[in-house]
Every structure is written in structure tokens, then in C-alpha cells.
Amino acid sequence: MRGAWWLHCVLPTNVKDMFDLHREILLLYTEFDTVEPRLLDRLTDRISKSSRLEEDIAVVFTNDRRFEFLAQRRKRDIVLVQIDLEDLEGQRQFRTKLASGLTSVDVYDVTRPVTSAAEFFGRSAELSGLRHALEIGQSVGIFGLRKAGKTSLLRRLARERRDEGRPVVEVDVSQIESARQLRATLLERVWEASRPHVGEAKLRLRCLSREGRLKASEEDLRDFWIEDLGAILAAVPARVELFIDEIDQVPPGPQSKFANDEEPYRALVQLRGPLQEADQLVMVSAGVNPRLFEEPLQGRADNLLYKLVRLYWLAPMSRQDARDMVQALGKRMGVRFPRGQAGDEAMEILWSAFGGHPLLTRKAASQASSMRTAEEMPFLLTVDRLAAAVRVDASGSARDQAKDVLVSFAEWFPDEHAALMLHVGGDEDERSLAAEWMAESGNRLEHAVSYGLLDGELNPRIRAAFPSVASE
């Protein structure tokens, strides 16, 4: 490519050990006045296709004054270290520049769902189970604690299936404002995803134009959209895969964005027929409250979506996956997780407090590494540093955010939450009362276990969420 040169760099042994970068580093040298995003796309593509290169870091030689802004936008995927072309005379050492670039980002402290493969960790068993469900046409609902990784898992699976050439539809209910918009979005996106698979079939749709845009009135859309949907699905030789996030927002109720409006729920009920035709449509949905599929009544009427999907509980990450996440992300910012027994002890600090909850674990690691400087490289996440971070109870800290876990759980399962608090934090009489309730109701705190608040022995797993045990 004219104006740009690609090089592979082998670091000196002392620098390799300092930054834990033992593979080759990709260097991009460009004399363009500006570095275009598509050039960085090529950079990440070259790295992804080579097993010889470090995955998390690259160096760009450029005088583009806007490059720092571009690098910040990509920090969730890769650390891009800029070296000005005038520095090639040796005025600044590469090691110093590398250290400065690594300490300028904090990839631990990210609260949005993961969108890149570089930030997705573990969940191999979950992905395998969901793939199998899709292959056999079984609809599933993924439910778990807030920030436990449901949206990230949903997006990862949808991207994977789309890359395989499947007709994939994604809908986020949090972006939907009405039943009309829900129906229109579902219909338009199913048509868009199906179009490449329809072939020469000439479909006459009442609600969509030839371009796939809504043309029907609200009344006609309500009455005929499902008929159009059936016509589209019948013309597609492959099963359409529908991914719906925040699906628990649909049924009316105090935690729903639709309040007392039943119409969005009725729109989902209309999907029941196509979903029961397993060769036409299959759905993977995600949310925090499974009542849409778990409770037999909707208000005073039968819930027509009851047991429509197989419920899939997403607990926090395993200990090893959580450790891999902290270690891999730290590498992108000059932070090293201890090895051997010291690493086991450091991980125990995080595990004991947060039980593998991804957001809380990352937040604690962020707090522990917040004092790192370019002069202290590598920065080691020692037991003492992690223990100090876990004890922080200021607003926005990992321990502070852990309390919100129980607040949300109380909203979804008030009776179970009351028994949970007696079981975990009560005196002997209160624990006996909780045990009686569990015995009478046949409920062994099933959601608390499924969601990962308790382990299989009914002991606290996310200890920082329980004030009575958090300081033990």
C-alpha cells in the first residue's frame, strides 16, 4: 500500500519481560497527513490473521495530530501506541512511549456491553448450549443479574451466526417506544435479514413496500403484520434466528417501560405461532426477570407465552474465566496479574467478594490499578492492592455497585428476597423461619442460586452484595 509500510518488531528481552509481550509487535509506518479509520481496520485485520503477533497492541508511526482521538475510540479492542515521525531520531525511547501509551487507558472500567471479540471472555459452555438450541429450533430465554453479561453473550452469538451466513435479526426492546414500533421493527428486520435467502420469490406484502419499509396504517399493521411475517418465513429456506434483548420490558408492570400498555405483550403473543413452527423461526431472548415465560398468568388472564422458551440461567463467570479476563485486559494497560500461588491468592480476594460477577470484578481491578504510572511498569496486582480495592465503599466502587444487585433482585422476587436476607444475614431464629418458608413453598431459593447470589450449598457467592457478610 503506497504511503504505508507494515513491519514486525521483536522486542528486547528486558522489554518483553517488563510488558509481558513475548510475540512480535505489528508496526505501521505512514506518512499520510491523516490516518483514516479504514487503515486501522486493516491493521486489526492483519493482527487477527497472524498467530505470530500480539493481539492487544500495535505501534503506529505518524504525525497525525488526531490519532490520539482515534486510538481512544479503539481502546476497547486494541492499544495503539503513537510515535511521532520526528521521534525516530531517538530523542524518546520506545520503552517510555510504550509505557505512556499503556497507562493512558483503563480497559477494566467499561460498563457497556461487550461488542468486540477481544473483550469477550469465557462462556464457552453457554455458547455451546445456545448453538445447539438454535440448531434444533428450540427457543431460549437467557436470564440473570444485571451486568452479568447477558447482552454481551447475546451479541456475540448473533454476530457468530451472522458470520456463518444465517438470517439473523436483532431487536433491543429498550430502543422500542410503542407496540407499533415493535411490530414494524420486527417485520422490517426479518425482511432485511431474509432478503438474500429468498431468491426469486415474489412476495406481495400488505405492510411493507418493495424496499422493505413500512407502508401500513397502525390498524393494518396490527391486523396483518403476522400474515406478512409468515409469508416471508415461508419463502426462506433457512430458519430465521431472532435475538431480542431486554424482553422482560415487554409485559406491563411496575418495572416495564410500557407501564399499563398491554399491546406490546400482544405483539409478542402473535409471534407464538411462527415460533412453534420450529423450521421457520427460533428466538434467543435475554432479560433479568423471567416472569414473561415463567408465570402462568398475565394479570388475570392466561399467559399465552408461558413456557414458550426454555429458560437458561446465566450465573457469573467461573473462577478461571474471571482470572483470564483480569489477566488479559491488564496486559493491554501494563498491569500484570501474579502467577503461581500469588496469583491464586490474588484471585481469591476477587472471587470471595464478587463470585465471578464480570462487572464487579473488573471494577475492583480498575480501582486496584488506578494508581499505576508509566514509571512503575509492570504494575502488579498484588494481594494487598486488590484487598484495598475490594474494601473501598465509595460511590461507584465495586462494593457500592454490588449492593444494587440485591436491590434489583428484591424488585423481581420480593418473597424470595425476604427469605434470602433471613437465610444469609439473620440470627438463628430468622434462619429457621427462612428454612420453613423454603420447605413449605418448595422453593430452595432457586433464583438466588440460578442467578449466582448463592452457591449450590446456599452459601453467599457474591459476598459484597450482603452487608452482613461482606466484611467477614
Task: Compose a concise summary of this entry.
With 472 residues, the protein is α/β, with parallel strands linked by helices. The protein has helices spanning 13-19, 37-48, 67-73, 94-103, 124-135, 150-163, 179-198, 218-235, 263-270, 272-276, 291-294, 319-331, 340-354, 358-368, 383-391, 398-412, 414-425, 428-441, 446-450, 467-470; strands spanning 4-9, 24-30, 53-61, 79-83, 140-143, 168-172, 240-245, 281-287, 297-298, 301-302, 310-313, 335-336, 379-380. Strands 6-7-8-5-11 form a five-stranded parallel sheet, sandwiched between helices. A four-stranded mixed sheet has the order 1-2-3-4, sandwiched between helices. A two-stranded antiparallel ribbon has the order 9-10.
Produce the secondary structure layout.
Layout: E1 4-9, H1 13-19, E2 24-30, H2 37-48, E3 53-61, H3 67-73, E4 79-83, H4 94-103, H5 124-135, E5 140-143, H6 150-163, E6 168-172, H7 179-198, H8 218-235, E7 240-245, H9 263-270, H10 272-276, E8 281-287, H11 291-294, E9 297-298, E10 301-302, E11 310-313, H12 319-331, E12 335-336, H13 340-354, H14 358-368, E13 379-380, H15 383-391, H16 398-412, H17 414-425, H18 428-441, H19 446-450, H20 467-470
Parallel strand pairs: 2-3, 3-4, 5-8, 5-11, 6-7, 7-8, 12-13
Antiparallel strand pairs: 1-2, 9-10
Helix pairs in contact: 7-8, 7-9, 13-15, 14-15, 14-16, 16-17, 17-18
